[in-house]
Amino acid sequence: MKITLPHDIPLLFYIPVAKAFYPFPIYFLRLAAPAPYDKSISRILNSLNENNYSSIDKVQNATIGELRRVRNFGEKGLVILLELLQTLSQQPELVLETDKLDDSLRMELDHLKQVMPVRLQLLEIGIEI
Known about the structure:
By secondary structure, the chain is an all-alpha fold. It is 47% helix and 0% strand.
């Protein structure tokens, strides 16, 4: 798949992920993956995290050009990342399926969901915690 998005405009203008998810760690995107523990997904998320793209917010504010320069990421990683963000954008209810995550990430997400601004934003998009 060839990516035709402009290289200098942040992803948030093309993939409208709800702002409630912005503080969530990048590993939250595992919930949007068809196979949650796929090795390529782990490599992609690890590469993003190691290159200071540790939250959904940081990825949403990145451009295609910036992401293409991420070490150990590649074009396939970029395509998969865009698909994960698109899935999260279309299915925000994935936030409720944290049982698929490891314990420490699940606890972190459960805590984030209780933070009042995040909780209110989730309620605004129809997700009741």
